Amino acid sequence: MSLFSSGNGDKRSEELIMQNPLPRNSGKRWRAGVLGATGIVGQRLVKLLSDHPWFQLTEVAASERSSGKTYAEAARWHLDGPIPEVARGLIVKGLDPTLACDFVFSALDSSVAGGAEEDFARAGYPVISNSKNHRMDPDVPLLIPEVNASHLDAIPFQQKNRGYEGGFIVTNPNCSTAGLVLVLKPLADAFGLEKVFVVTLQAVSGAGYPGVPSMDIHANVVPFIPGEEEKMESEPQKLLGKWDGARFIDAGLGLSAHCNRVPVLDGHLECISVSLKKIASLNEVREALRTFEVSHELASLPTAVRHPVVVIDGDDRPQPRRDVQAGNGMAAAVGRVRECPLLDIKLTLLSHNLVRGAAGGALLNAELLAARGLLHYRVPASESQLVQPAAQ
Ligand code: NAP
Is the pLDDT of residue 21 over 50? Predict the structure, then answer.
């Protein structure tokens, strides 16, 4: 389901999207490339870009296995519906940073993402990454627009530090971290956070394709996901921390994570217990979550939802099958808010690992960069200059 179509019954999001203005440079869209376009996250990006009001998909790139083929030949398509027309006939390129586009999304396997993303940034491309490689770099924003848009102030520092001209790297967090931090943010703002204990039940699509062998996951739970607990214990510190003009300052939270792979297709469920700095009633906690609303700047972005946390009533919710599309897949669904005998409160949250936790999150990051004038039209070498767009 596209985030920009109106067939999903989410009335609030539809209203929001219809209010969203097109860029003021109307008629011209930024040209986007997708590195790792054949993978499970890359395919989501291709689909979301196929009817995006600001961006136009012009380039796809992947490994030597795919390059030289058309996208339709190279991609083993996992999504409902056909491969978008705009992508079918594109020739898949390699990772040479000479693509005809204004910026790139990276959905590359982490074995190659680190170097490739640096090559593109050095060649002048803004790189909006899903991969883990640069998330914790001391000069790279790890971004959830609703949480820490101010961390984009680190971009000029990064460019100076690395000698990048025009290019830079911005990353989104690990798919489990994305939902967790979206829910922690309103609690941090209203009450302050001391400690967070989280147990995840993560979908198989979080491991890419083909991911976990079917004989390991069918009718089973695997209580280990390599590297996941470390990411969940470090990334929220950066996301909820501050950029002080020269470095990121951690939030200083106590954090402990247990990560499990479960036989669910899409959607990571997380059971969390939290201790707060300020005493709060359950109603105050529910209210803080329910009323969490994005700024005017964010509300004007095509992929944004006005309320990125959706509180669901019902003792047995949220559930992946029923609730994973909350806010077009861009919201975290929260339920079971109750007292915790060990810490202060506990609740269950769910977020779409491939939308909020990957492609949709990256798209929102790109939209914020566009709105802040941080994307440029790259013109052919013969004209040899960067053209500043008239953004939001
Ligand atoms: P995937 O399905 O395995 O796709 C990997 C992509 O990387 C494919 O396009 C593949 O191209 C390309 N690739 C692999 N080796 C390459 C090489 N040597 N040179 C160039 N391209 C190469 O993985 P995914 O789940 O989409 O994940 C992509 C990235 O996003 C990973 O870094 C992952 O950690 C991150 N991420 C994933 C999720 C999720 O929920 N799945 C969430 C957040 C972040 P070929 O098809 O040609 O092999």
Answer: no
- Spatial neighbors of 269 by CB under 8 A, at least 6 apart, are 200, 201, 202, 262, 318, 319, 320, 348, 349, 350
Domain 175-352 maps to which CATH number in 2.40.70.10, 3.20.20.480, 3.40.50.261, 3.30.360.10? Answer: 3.30.360.10
Ligand 1 pocket at CB < 6 A: 36-42, 62-63, 65-66, 95, 107-110, 112-113, 130-132, 175, 205-206, 208-209, 353-354, 357-358
pLDDT, residue 28, reads 83
Q: How far is the CA of 53 from the centre of ligand 1 (A)?
A: 26
Predicted TM-score (pTM) of the model is: 0.93
Tokens read off for 30: 């930024």
To test the ligand 1 pocket, which listed residue (35, 41, 117, 350) has its Cβ within 8 A of the most ligand atoms?
Answer: 41
Amino acid letter, residue 292: F
User: Are the C-beta atoms of residues 367 and 302 closer than 8 Å to each other?
Assistant: yes
Question: What distance lies between CA 179 and its chain's CA centroid?
Answer: 10
Burial of 245 (0-12, 13-18, 19+ CB in 10 A): exposed
